[in-house]
Structures are given as structure tokens and as C-alpha cells.
Amino acid sequence: MADKVTIAVDAVGGDAGPEVVLAGAARALADDPDLTLVLCGPADVVEPFAASHERAVAQPCTEVIAMGEHPASAVRRKKDSSIVVGCRLVRDGAAQGFFSAGSTGACLAAGTLVMGRIRGVKRPALAQVLPAYAKPTLLLDVGANADCKPEYLLQFAQMGAAYMRELMGVAEPRVGLLNIGEEDEKGSEAAQAANALLREELPGFAGNAEGRDLLSGEFDVIVTDGFTGNVALKTIEGTSKVLFSYVKDALMGSLSGKLGALLVKGDLAALKAKVSPDTYGGSPLLGVKGACVVGHGSSNELAVRNGIAVAATTVRSHVADVIAATVAQGGERA
Amino acid sequence: MADKVTIAVDAVGGDAGPEVVLAGAARALADDPDLTLVLCGPADVVEPFAASHERAVAQPCTEVIAMGEHPASAVRRKKDSSIVVGCRLVRDGAAQGFFSAGSTGACLAAGTLVMGRIRGVKRPALAQVLPAYAKPTLLLDVGANADCKPEYLLQFAQMGAAYMRELMGVAEPRVGLLNIGEEDEKGSEAAQAANALLREELPGFAGNAEGRDLLSGEFDVIVTDGFTGNVALKTIEGTSKVLFSYVKDALMGSLSGKLGALLVKGDLAALKAKVSPDTYGGSPLLGVKGACVVGHGSSNELAVRNGIAVAATTVRSHVADVIAATVAQGGERA
Description:
By secondary structure, chain A is of the alpha/beta class. Helix content of chain A is 50%, strand content 16%.
């Protein structure tokens, strides 16, 4: 039996509307008998759901943070928004984790400002599990910090390694630095400085990784600043999307292709699901006190279900405690 | 009839060996009756080729710059290497362009140091034509300058637009800045500064592009620093490679898939060729006096043929003159 866990869920986050979030929440509850959910959102959305589902609690909120709003100021202003309320439930111990498919910026701001940073963590980082060949690779930061100092990247490496060890069971994660050449002295000034610090401070640092290593499966964790990481993540998404379009066009362009397409349709659909962001369900914000998982804005029911499951697993594997211990150690060593 | 053009070719550049380069050179000669090639390399490699091919001239060299050597110091030291000799032929007017599939770093250094920068160009940039959906997109810089000031990016935008206009016939290229959000104020400090400068100085600036726009076909030119551009380019290559592996695995995993695979094999192979770097043959170094085109280290015969053709087209479309005029204008305006 798994540990009992309570996750707060932003019922109104995501482009697809609350029905999709609630459907995903219902699946998460059905799949995990030790899970309780606190649904944060307008009373007329969350109360009927809580009334009709076991282990579901309603937390009515009067405000919503929209996708276009300035994240930090919206979080400061809208104290009764679903995102701020969800994070406050975690801060106050009423829940251990939070999931939202709403504004990524607002979730980062609320996670950092409301849940609070783990003592010693300089900057929380948004991490993303990538569908690398043979085994997953964790990329961070994918957008929380556009400008990063080398010491942030060292902590990203420690936090990412803790995540892959505790959640994915990778005994000794291979951590690489995203750079533009294999040799230590390659890259921008920032990348060279980060390489030097990681060589010195990170036991078992595996050296530089390149763009092509993000999906090669050669590394368990790849660290970079939030600008480069966000560009790389969206490049992977865009490349996958365009290649699937090209495959479709190629197959529809010939008679043999059309016949073959009928036969391979199921296999390609399964593959598309495998490499889709929905499969991973969400990006954990590492370095905050509690589990904070941010879903893609376009999350469907499955993605919401998986995002909630990631939040629950993050809580159960005590990643935040491990990060706290690692960072405290790093602080002593430095 | 096209203008007569002479291109110097590094006969020993590339992982596949001189035979592949020479085979590609032979195809380029056969396809373009107005093309003359000067083959730079060891006498026993280039002289037999020149003797057996019309419009081929041998330029024996005694040195070779290997892939691992430090680019700038190798270029300074090895005056009789195929890369330095090829660029010198352009500087001295014996050729108008140069192609190599050898060390990218050495080609960038020799292009910049030996051919020389166009007056007013702050930093030459390596550009790459990407197989975006429906129409190609030019990305630059993909690795010549890891650290960039905003004013470099403005020139990259001007040079990239000139290239797409003159070579690709795009009347009014849509130029975007690679960033991590659509809004002008998004991104790192460097990206924000570049956005502000492009808004002010670049007529028709189309705003920020994101990673997913590299292949969407929404932009004709996307500018970024050489660090981010190199990561993005290698991410596209890596994602394509892994997705094709996944497609293969998916089809081989079921009986219907195996049958279907027989039918779609040809279409998928054609697609693979379409998105392969070999199709574009090489990356032009923009901002130097003359055409300098750098091929992938893994260039095959077709890639060499195409790289030489890109160099010839670059010369015939007078891109360097257009860049010189644009940059001189920009200098006056600034």
C-alpha cells in the first residue's frame, strides 16, 4: 500500500476547460486509492465534483489567474485565485503537493513565493522528463530562470540527480551540462564557467552534453539555463510535430503509402503518444517546499491524470527532503 | 547560362575521406557546366582528379587541419593546409568561393581571418537552412559566436534577410528573434535587449520566435546567438534521428507494422532525405568577403555536391555585395 497523499488541484487551469481537469482528477482518484484531492476553483465547478467523488474535497476560490497576466503581480494581487490557494494549502500542510495546467509563470511564481524555497536553494528550476531513446532524460531548467549563474546550475544538477534517483530509481544519475561541444573548454563564457564549477563540485559529473544528446539517452540529467532549456524543449516539441506531419504527408502521397498507412496507423499513434508531453503529464518545479507540478496548457484528461500522479509520486519519494539535505551539504562544502 | 564561377574545395575535409569529397566534386562539375573547381589537398589526391576531369584544377597542399585541433591556432600555424589555402585563393581572387566538410571551427577561423570580414560586419555568422514545413527557414548564428551582443544579432538579421532574398527569392523575409515567449518583454536580459534593438532598427521585424517555430515555416529568418543556435540545430538533428529510430521500432514491433513498413519504406526514405542535413549540403558563413560554405563532418557524396552548389549560388547571387551595402547603410543609420 502506498502512503496516503493529498494533492491540491487547480480545477480551472488549462486551455481545455474545467471539465477536462475534473475528468483527469477522477481518473487519478480511481487509479490511486491512497490519494485525496482538494479541488481549487469556483464553487459551482468544484462542489458538485466533491459531492459525487470519494476522497475529493472542494476548496472554493473566487479568482482565476488568466494565461496572459503578469505572473508575479497576479500572484501577489489575486490571493483567492486557484493557483495561490492551491500553493497555500501546501504551505499550511493541508496538502503535500499541487498540480496545475494553468499559467506556467503564475505556478512558478506561486510555487516560489507561496510554498517557499527550500532553505539553501538559490533558484527553483522547472524540470521536464524527455522521451529519450531507451530511457528518460531530465532536462532542467526549462524556463523558470532565463538568466542563470553557474552556482544555480550546480544546484540544478544536484536537484535533478535527486529527482532521478528517488523517483526514477537511477542509482547513479549521469549528469551533463548542455553545451556546444564535448570538450570542457567549449561554449559561451557562462557555459565554460558552469563546466568548471561542475567539474569541481559535482561528484561524477559526466561532462558536456550537446543538443543531440537530449533524446539520445546518454544522460540521465542535463542542466542548462532556463532560456536555453526552454528553447531546446520547444524545439523538440516543434520538430516532433513537424516530422509527424511530414510522415503523414509522405504516406498520403503515394498509393503504396496509403495502403501501408492503414497498416501502420496504430503503431504510429502509439508512438505519437509515447513522445507526447501528455505522457509525462507535467513538469516538476524543483527546489520548493512541497511538490509543485505544472502541466502543459494543452493538457488533456490523460495529461492531467498523469500530472497529478507525478505530484503524488514526488511527495511519496520525499524528493524535497533529499534536495534539502543535498543542498545543505553543498552549502557546507562550498 | 549561369555566370562562370570558380570554387575552391577542401579535398581532405570530412569524416568519409577524400574519395567521397572527390566523388561529390565530380557530380557538382557534371551538373554545372559553368563551374570550375580548384581542389586543395595532397598532390597524390588532387592531381589525378584534375588530370581526369575537365574544369578541375589541382592546388597541392602539404598540410591538413585535423578535426580535434584548436581552430584559430591551427589556421595561424598551418599556412599550407587545405582550408587556409582554399580561403587564400578566394582572398586573392583565384576563386570566388570555398567549400569544406572539414573542421567547422577551422573554416570559421580561416573564413574570418584569411578571406576577411566585409567592411562594417562585426561578427560573421554561420547560417543553416532548416527543412521547415512548407518552406525553408534560415537560422543564424548556429555556432560561430557563442557570446553575442545585441548589435551582432541585428547584423545577423540583416545578413540572413539578404541571403533569403537573393538566394531563395523571398521578397520580404519575415525575421524573428529566437526567444522563450511571444511578448517583446520576455526572455533573458540579452534577448530583451536584442528584441528592443531589432524593434528599433530592423524594418519589418516580425517579433519573437520560439523553439517550435524553427520548423513551423512561420519565419524566413530566425536570429540568435551561436550558443543557443547550435543547441537548437543539434536538438533538431537529434530529435529527427531518434524519431526515425522510434518509427522503425514501432513498425517492426507488430505484424501489421512489418507489412505496412514494406509499403511505406520508400516514402519514409524520401522523407528522411528531405529533412537530412545532406540535402542542404552546407552552412554559409555570412559576413566574409567571398562565399564560404561549411559542410557537415559526416557529409556524403550528395552533401558535398550540394555544398559546392550552395557556394556557387552564393557567389552568383552576389550575397556578399548585398550584405556589404546593407551593413554600410546600417552603419550610417546607427
